[in-house]
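Feature request, filed as a ticket because there's no other form

It would be nice if the structure record came with a short human-readable summary line next to the tokens. Right now we just get the raw output. Example of a typical job, pasted below so the devs can see what we mean:
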Amino acid sequence: MKQKFTVEGMSCVNCSAAVERAVKKLDGTQSVEVSLLAKSMVCEFDEKKLNPKKIVNAVNKAGYRCSLYGEKSENKSKFLSEKARLISSIIILLPLMYVSMGDMMGIPTPHFLHEYPLISAIVQLTFALAVAIINAKFFVNGFKSLVKLSPNMDSLVAMGSSASFLYGIFSIIMLSVGISQNNSEFIEKYSHGLYFESAAMILTLVTVGKMLEERAKTKTGSAIAKLSKLAPERSTVIRNGEEIEIPSREIVCGDIVVIKPGASIPVDGVIVEGHSEINEASLTGESEPRFKTVGDEVMTATVNLTGAFKMEAKKVGGETVLAKIIELVENTSASKAPVARLADKVAAVFIPIVTSIAVATAIIWLAMDYPFDFALSNAISVLVISCPCALGLATPVAITVAVGKCASEGILIKSAEALETLHKTDVAVFDKTGTLTKGHPAVTDTAAIGCGEKELLDIALSLEKSSEHPLAIAVCEYAGSKGAELTECSNFTAVGGKGVNADIGNTHYCAGNGTYMNELGIDISPWCEDIEKLSREGKTVMFFTDGEKLLGFIAASDEIAEDAQKALEMLDTLGIETVMLTGDNGQSANATAKKLGIKRVISGVLPSEKSSTVTSLCKDGKTVIMTGDGINDAPALIAADVGIAVGAGRDIAIDSADVVLVKNSLTDIAETIKYSRRVMTNIKENLFWAFFYNAICIPIAAGALYPLWQITLSPMLASAAMSFSSIFVVTNALRLYKK
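Raw output as currently delivered:
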């Protein structure tokens, strides 16, 4: 069983790792993925050994707040919101900075603060304690995680701020000693090195960074948030013969829903009365409206532009296309790309190493006879500057932005792994029918021999009207478009695999392939050259006879998909080899491949053999993507490194595909591969920055530049730099909105 949970209280990648460890320890857990960005967890477990309640309890026991997705957490946060904490902290921090640093900034301060330094110290302690109480979450969460031997970002902030507080209290004690002994050196030294402003500033700046980070992160899901708001809150339905208005969530399958011009469609269904132009841009990204009439499907969140119509609800609630898109994007954002594992592995040992470096920093400076406050300041700076927020955000923010952006354009990516794999694509394999072609034949050539062309088309329409064969449908559509006249036929008979025959008036007519003509004794040899030419072009020829002579023939072929040529050219430009994999005969497949410029064709392959063919291509060490209709090609889609389903806009939950192209546009394949390359570049930039930042800043914070250039980083500057690193990573990822 797979279940989704909401997990609150996580502040960095170490938190998500701690949650994963807590759940993995439970007997029955099969897999667990925690998303720091989405504040969620997807857990797969054995129902016989484990249940959701035990999972929730395990996470809560680890120090976080967990609940089933969509439910409210029973353990509500006892702390103020990010915004309230920030505003309160700043209000208190300003007078603290005035008291502690007013003279240094050239701002006049009350005389009694100079005359009575102990009062000044106690005032600073009071303000700093107020800021600490407001930001108690850092201390509670941080030290709780520390005790459980799973330190996180809050642990580093708590240790850094606590160290400043402890040194400040130590300074007050020494200041009191100096005052009691009238020791001016002690009074001077300890009245100007209290560190309370650093303790408060660390907490405030980290809160600033977290708030800006949260604001930026909320933008990553904006495409889906906007999408979810498109469905109307209330709708008009017909019940007991009357039109009534009800909340859209109360619509049930079978309800007749009235859709007026300009209204959004509340559920998925089928039009039963009326017609209109429908704007489906919200789901497919396609700007051109589509004409819909009785029998056509309409989807949630699309907009009715012109006429009014009635529709029967077929899918409601979580079964609609919109709901599945949102669920798909949320799950993908919560999943981890292989590149994210690197950050997880580093984060697992990062905080213990940083803590060791901070302790070593203090010991080394003390051993070199530097003052205790100098050694402590550098140690605190190391703790604060190395909070692993940027490291934890580097991958998930970029993945979430990318998946949301693609979804808004009708490209549904089911996993972060698929998005990453796409950038390495070497070979793109395509099914022929329904993928590179439209999936239904159309008439391309006609030849009237024993009668006039109009008479041939009249006979063809009358004969084929009773047949449901795709070729018969193509002939009827063509003949109807040319103004052919329909005559009711009698004694209609379909001859399996060969053709049809029927009486039209007093004459018995037959239509079918060459084999059928030979059986009827109709000589078609004079036209062999023309027939062979049409066959080489991948066209199917249908012959018509009155039983005595050949009346003519009509050729049809499956039309090339409108954007297939352009899509293949785009892939070629990207250096990707294209392969056609089809069950069609070699002649038909090669004819289509020649039109499209595909050099490698694998034809005559049964559906059961397609997967082994794709597997053999993957064994060559190449990354292979397979594009098909998502149903007949399911085994091949699973066998490929990335399976792409085309023509599945009405059923996006195709388990076999990793990517679903809702718009049915093949050019989206190349666009997605290019975008995947951009995403990977962005992730690498973020990871580089996170590692580079720590590699450069930690030595500087430790005081490496002090012996030569007297350069150090105060804890306040360190906390500002830490916040900036996270904001940089999130902002860089947000550039991916420009696809």
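Something like this underneath would help us a lot:
Residues 233 and 380 are 53 Å apart (CA to CA).
The two ends are 36 Å apart (CA to CA).
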